[in-house]
Design a protein that fits this description.
Elements: H1 6-14, E1 24-27, H2 32-43, E2 48-54, H3 60-75, E3 80-84, H4 87-94, H5 98-117, E4 121-123, H6 128-141, E5 154-157, E6 166-168, E7 177-179, H7 187-196, H8 212-229, H9 233-262, E8 269-270, H10 271-276, H11 280-288, H12 295-304, E9 312-314, E10 320-324, E11 327-331, E12 345-346, E13 351-354, E14 360-367, E15 381-385, E16 394-397, E17 403-404, E18 413-414, H13 415-421, H14 426-431, E19 433-437, E20 440-444, E21 448-449, E22 461-467
Length: about 475
């Protein structure tokens, strides 16, 4: 076995990939890296199925790459699937760069084919030099320990269209794997292996890496300068990344333990407990960085987390963090609430209503004898005289300036003041719902019922709403 092949074989062995199993999907661009990966896996005896993406970005050159891939696979009797993408129109439609559009389209298709064929894994041709450049790129921009570990040879690919989520994978779990078998192989070794076999490849003049310009500076200027100081700098950086990967695993265990200690039952973080934690800023970084918060934001959050309530930070991924009464409240993107107000919806007169953010309202209409009927008194239940209501009842979010007359009080007050009295956070205020009778607020859900709809001696029919 060539010295080129053992590092590739090790990745497949660690991932528990079987030679007599279903095919391995191999991303094939026609470049040296992907050609070497495909032929090496084929030579090692693994069943392979090549996937080629024609992004239609270079006219006849793109078609030439496709033709090369077809000839290569035909010569080695390797199955090939080809997909054409209208990359520019996709990028315009979604408001993203050409590079990000190509990435999304590529991985979407890989995921679909993998799911259809029950493939053992999807293999891509990132190599050691790519990983070193990624490490240096992250170091130049500023990063945590994760950014210094580079790419992983074994990752999991979440097969969901338009949502590509790559995470580290435990060894032996080969369900939905993304493999990088060349990650411990240098570009020079790849080209040398192909040259020994008189195997040609194509050169893609369009680099779809959004960091191509900076990577070129690292590759052509920074790394040669570093090699003048240490001829083995590439090997050293690769070894450092591996040691940091192991250190990250240990630190991850420690961070999870500390996060458990500082977390409140509602999922928020206790500021006082966080301040007492060892390396509290590092812990905060490890919690927030995956949600898209920058190092500068994490620093600001850490340095001001004992300030007054109400300070809000939003990450580049749309997550939000709120400083509120000695806690840091985290709201992820999928929990974000629409702006205040909105058209709302109508409630049924009977039955179970299930709404946004886990809302469940049990609605019951009944005839009563006012002399014996016992009115519910807890804040999670509202009971109204049916004849005093304008039906159907509406349900909506609060709006700025909303006022109502609380039951048992003279005059009106702002709903916002009521929410403040109940110490609701900004996130809770944004989610606060109102039940309305026509244009009038009948119930600030879970907090206070309004006057004007109450059950009295003349009531014969009631409607009861209970928050489950």
């Amino acid at each position: 076995m060539s010295s080129f092949l053992p590092p590739i074989q090790k990745v497949l062995t660690d991932a528990a990939i079987l030679k007599d199993g279903d095919a391995l999907l191999v991303a094939l661009s026609g470049g040296a890296d992907s050609v070497a990966l495909l032929l090496a896996l084929h030579e090692l005896g693994y069943p392979v199925h090549a996937l080629h993406c024609n992004f239609e970005l270079r006219g006849t050159a793109s078609d030439g790459d496709e033709a090369f891939c077809r000839r290569l696979c035909h010569a080695h009797d390797i199955p090939l699937s080809v997909k054409h993408f209208r990359t520019r129109s996709y990028a315009q439609r979604h408001g993203i760069s050409i590079e990000m559009a190509a990435r999304d389209l590529r991985y979407q298709w890989f995921a679909e084919v993998a799911a259809e064929q029950g493939a053992q894994a999807v293999c891509v041709a990132h190599h050691r030099d790519d990983n070193i450049e990624t490490l240096l790129l992250n170091l130049i921009r500023g990063t945590g320990i994760h950014g210094l570990t580079g790419m992983r040879p074994i990752s999991t690919l979440n097969f969901q269209p338009s949502t590509i989520n790559i995470q580290s994978s435990p060894q032996g779990d080969h369900r939905g794997l993304l493999l990088r078998p060349l990650l411990n192989v240098s570009r020079a070794d790849i080209e040398a292996w192909l040259t020994e076999r008189d195997q040609t490849w194509v050169t893609d003049s369009t680099n779809l890496d959004p960091d191509a310009a900076l990577r070129n500076k690292i590759r052509l200027q920074l790394l040669p300068l570093m090699e003048e100081m240490n001829p083995r700098v590439r090997e050293s950086l690769a070894e450092t990344a591996q040691r940091l990967t192991e250190a990250e695993a240990l630190m991850g265990d420690a961070v999870r333990e500390i996060q458990t200690d500082v977390s409140q039952p509602d999922g928020s973080l206790s500021v006082s407990a966080l301040k007492q934690a060892t390396s509290s800023q590092t812990v905060l970084h490890e919690i927030l960085h995956p949600r898209g918060y920058t190092a500068e934001q994490v620093r600001d959050i850490h340095d001001t987390m004992e300030g007054e309530s109400g300070k809000l930070w939003e990450s580049r991924q749309g997550h939000r963090l709120l400083r509120d009464r000695g806690r840091l409240l985290m709201q992820d993107t999928d929990a974000a609430t629409p702006k205040q107000g909105g058209e709302g919806t109508f409630l049924p007169l009977d039955g179970l209503y299930e709404g946004p953010h886990g809302l469940r309202l049990l609605i019951r209409r009944q005839a009563i004898d006012p002399a014996t009927f016992e009115i519910p008194r807890d804040s999670r239940t509202a009971c109204f005289d049916l004849e005093k209501l304008t039906l159907p009842l509406g349900l909506r979010l609060t709006r700025e300036g909303d006022r109502f007359q609380p039951f048992g009080m003279n005059g009106t007050r702002l709903v916002s003041d009521l929410m403040t009295d109940h110490k609701l956070s900004l996130f809770d205020k944004e989610r606060q719902l109102l039940v309305c009778s026509g244009d009038r607020i009948a119930w600030v859900v879970g907090l206070r019922a309004a006057a004007g709809f109450e059950v009295d001696d003349h009531t014969r029919h009631v409607i009861t709403l209970t928050l489950l």
